[in-house]
Amino acid sequence: MPEARPEVESLQAYSAPLEGRRGMLRLDFNENTxxxxxxxxxxxxxIPSDHYAIYPEYDGLREAxxxxxxxxxxxxxxxxxxxxxxAAGLQPDQIGLFNGVDAAIHALFHAYGAPGxxxxxxxxxxxxYTPCARMQGMTIEAIPYRLPDFVFPLEEIRSxxxxxxxxxxxxxxxxxxxxxxxxxxxxxxxxxxxPERILELAAAAPHTLVVVDELYEAFTGDSxxxxxxxxxxxxxxxxxxxxxxxxxxxxxxxxxxxxxxxxAIGSSAVVDRIGRVTGPYDINSFAVTAAHAALADQxxxxxxxxxxxxxRDWLLGQLRAADVRHHADGGNYLLxxxxxxxxxxxxxxxxxxxxxxxMAGKPLIDxxxxxxxxxxxxxxxxxxxxxxxxGLADPxx
Length: 397
Prior knowledge:
Blueprint: H1 6-9, E1 25-26, H2 38-45, H3 61-72, E2 95-98, H4 101-112, E3 118-123, H5 129-134, E4 139-144, H6 154-166, E5 179-183, H7 195-204, E6 209-213, H8 225-232, E7 244-249, E8 262-266, H9 268-275, H10 285-295, H11 298-321, E9 326-327, E10 333-336, H12 342-351, E11 354-355, E12 357-358, E13 369-372, H13 376-390
Parallel strand pairs: 1-11, 3-4, 3-5, 5-6, 6-7
Antiparallel strand pairs: 2-8, 7-8, 9-10, 10-13, 12-13
Helix pairs in contact: 2-10, 3-10, 11-13
């Protein structure tokens, strides 16, 4: 058999247990737990059968994303001469369309990573970053969060990003990281970094592609985009930061994880380069139709997010009352350390029809379970089962 590239032969692929999940309470992959807007379902059902035979068309989708992003910026602070229908100066060619954010991550490494280049990120974080870097032959510098509360290691990241120049020292041989990749809020710790700090890092490191994975920002409002749009007014919001790229998805809030649709938002030049390494029809027609409908029903997304946050508050009250070790910050998930062991409790919960994700063996969070947040009814179902397994008093409280 022909051998693949050395980077691929030695690569351990990212994998997740995706089989046998239907019909169970899905609290393992941070998905929307109730499904998409009825408008999405109606739009997909209305697709004529002969359209199945046509290659997908993307006209209007980038513009729809632009309009949705404009709605996020504080309207009173947008420049009066902002282009109508645009997010301040944001333009459609600054929106990249991808077959899920996973595909965007793969593409940005393919476009910008090369053997010997350095990826700077945090640990623990989303596991797909590592194989994407390694398949390009990159080295990885993953700086751990600060215990006990998983605080973002800002000074350590800044030092690694800026090198000797950041300390005012000369260096003829040091080269900056090729990519800085920050998941904000971070999966799985929920750690949040203020958007202003991220923008400062990007401004200080113009030769590094600074990528912000914002899949969970809707649950905490930590996006770098609103301040960028306000600052840009009617001008190009990425003019001062052409090295900044933001990743978004409709999987976690709008319930389109099964259809795979993600976006990369940045300077037109960066979006163009990333698009060059993807196929012309990577996103299917059903995903396009669903995305249009989901973006048009922001009220549904807002309602779901609000319900998740109410459920989060309720579950945190139960955990505190039962003195269960846990950690919650950003995102639609939290960490719990069960007394009976993460692997054992994960198995018992599966037997009860509830899926969670064991973090056993992961740095800093070994022994914990990552539990996605759904509705209050779903979290009551989870708590009753979990409390019963752990032998906590009054499991139905």
